[in-house]
Amino acid sequence: MPLIPDFTINQVFTQPWSTTQLITWNLQIILMGLLVCWTCGLVGSFIVIRRMALMGDAISHGILPGLAIAFITVGSLGIGTMFIGACLAGLTCNFCIEWLHTNTKIREDAAMGLVFTSFFALGVTLISGNAGNIDLDPGCILYGELGLIPLAEKVEINGTLFGNRAIWTMGVVFICVVTGAIVFYRQLLISSFDSTLAKSIGMPVKVIHLGLMLTLALATVASLEAVGVILVVAMFVFPSVTASFFFNRLSFILLSSFPLGILYTLGGFHLAHWLDCSIAGAIAVTATLLFIPACLLGPNGGVCSRFMHR
Amino acid sequence: MNSLPYPIQVHDLTVSYQRKPVLYGVDLEIEAGSLVGVIGPNGAGKSTLIKTIMNMVRPNGGFVKILGKSPKAGTKHIGYVPQRESVDWEFPVTVMDVVLMGRYGHLGWFGRISKADKKMAHECLEKVDMLSYANRQIGNLSGGQQQRVFLARALAQESSIYLMDEPFVGVDAVTEKTIVSILKSMQQSGKTLVIVHHDLATAKNYFDHLLLLNMRKIAYGPTPKVFTEELLQKTYGGRLTVFSEMASQAAKQPEIETAKTIGE
After folding, report:
1. A286-306: b or e for each residue (b if 16 or more CB lie within 10 Å)?
2. Which of A88, A128, A152, B218 to pair with B260, CA 20 to 30 A apart?
3. CB contact under 8 A, A196 and B137
4. A179 touches chain B (CB under 8 A)
5. DSSP 8-state class, residue B6
6. With an 8 Å Cβ cutoff, is A196 touching chain B?
């Protein structure tokens, strides 16, 4: 079997949209992909400008045991319990790091590395120990399976069906994130850039920070089924870093999440159809493929522009 | 007149980092409308004093009052210009964005930037001669230009007190002149300014009051009275004095911890 299958336009671009049934199925996948990319892109921009990209990575790993315990005790992937589980695990994680850092001779970075990996390991053990449970597949939690999102159960209110639960949840989280970003834009901007100024004019810098961390956890939990706890980090980091090679204002970088999200989703979807692989993985690969030319050719600090200015 | 609270009052202030003393029993009363230079060798606690007044560092003893209020309530009356290297210059904001941040304190939680705020930011940029750079990202500026942007932001804050940490470090001669003339005009409009400064040669001409600092307050007063050879000697050669004082204290009460501190 060749490493890269033959590329045929028919198979990659036409076939997924050939029958009504396939179109309904794939539109759900695309919609979920867009919502995940947009939500994570917006949240991630704020994380990246605070120089906390690795923190996003760490947190998404550290909340895993919380997710596992929440799922095992309640038995559903509903966002409420999963979010509570994630927050509790995240807080415990934070507490353990602080404790190790202040009460032992372990330095902060080592303490972070230690705590997050042990939490992650605990999570993996819990999930694989309960592997008999079909809904909680370790592969799905870790890497997500966007292709199976249309299988999520339907939302039912008073006997009326409203469509896919996973997409509805993601949509609500997306709207919350957009509203939060608009309403608290100034607070987020100033506390990220100059926390001293923010504090001196009476802004609750710590509350803003905590709010952002909770939003990060919420976005991670909501995107879990689609992209998993590992690939979600790519969704957080790639859009804003790629956009920063073109724009020098935070507002433009935030807005770039939208076109980039469309490129990532459509690119990843069709790439996955070509290579017959995980859609979430293909989306992350697409993001990387778009990042490379941006980094080389981007007018705002790209490799070439730096070389020319010298 | 005298019943008005001092813009900045510091009483018996002691600050230490991880048991290493940085400031010892500093008393200070700065009167409204002073242009104060804070002078002292490296590690004398100049930045620590500013940070303690800004409520970024918690003192071990003593207190700070700003216009008679606690630092927490008082810092909103202060415009703070941080040290240039403490700023993330890669941050995606333009010169105009930074200056507009100076207006945030006047907006409240959900207020929006108004036309008047924008006009004011324009004027402030004009004063520091940086209006033509308004749409540049802050990383694409020279050191002097960066410093002028932060001065413009401070102006836009319309505070009554200003604290600036080493505003003349790494700036060109033109910028230095611009900053000095702006500081003097701010003083004339009744602002109180406290500036950390490292260059003894210019200190005498720039400031009307000087604070000589080296862990302790060596002297504070009008420049002609304080800028004397004897006091400067005490400030810059004074490190030895402080250490020998500490050593003799430690000798009287031989505690391991004190000895360790001195050993460092």
Report:
1. bbeebbeebbeebebbbeeee
2. B218
3. no
4. no
5. P
6. yes
Q: What is the pLDDT of residues B36-88, one digit of tens each?
A: 999 988 888 899 999 999 988 889 999 999 999 988 888 889 999 988 888 88
Q: Shortest Cα distance from B75 to chain A (angstroms)?
A: 5
Q: Determine, for residues B80 and A248 on separate chains, whether the beta-carbon distance falls below 8 Å.
A: no
A112's CB contacts (< 8 A; 6+ apart) are A58, A97
Does A205 lie at the interface with B, CB-CB under 8 angstroms?
no
Return d(Cα B203, Cα B210) in angstroms, integer.
8
A292/A242 Cα distance (integer angstroms): 8
**Residues A49-59, mean pLDDT to the nearest whole number:** 85
A49 Cβ under 8 Å from any chain B Cβ: yes
Taking an 8 Å cut-off on Cβ atoms, the answer to whether B76 and A248 are in contact is no
Please tell me the distance in Å from A104's CA to the nearest CA on chain B: 15
Q: Give the closest of B98, B105, B137 to A201, CB-based.
A: B105
Q: CB within 8 A of A140, min separation 6: which ones? A: A148, A225, A228
SS3 of residue B81 by DSSP: strand
Write down the pLDDT at residue A152.
80
Per-position DSSP letters for B130-192, written without gaps between them: -GGGTTSBGGGS-HHHHHHHHHHHHHHHT-SEEEEESTTTT--HHHHHHHHHHHHHHHHTT-E
What is the second-level CATH architecture of the domain B8-263? 3-Layer(aba) Sandwich (3.40)
Contacts of A249 in chain B (CB under 8 A): 92-94, 97, 137
Quote the DSSP letter at residue B69. B
**CA dist., res. B49 & res. B59, Å (int):** 10
The total of other beta-carbon atoms located within 10 Å of residue A161's CB is: 10
Chain B interface disruption, residue of A45, A48, A200, A205, most B CBs within 10 A? A200
How is chain B split into domains, by residue range? Answer: 8-263
d(C-alpha A169, C-alpha A185), whole Å: 23
Q: Answer whether B54 sits within 8 Å of A201, measured CB to CB.
A: no
Query: Residues in chain B with pLDDT < 70?
Result: 1-3, 238-264
ipTM exceeding 0.85, yes/no:
no
Domain A9-295 has CATH 3.40.640.10: no
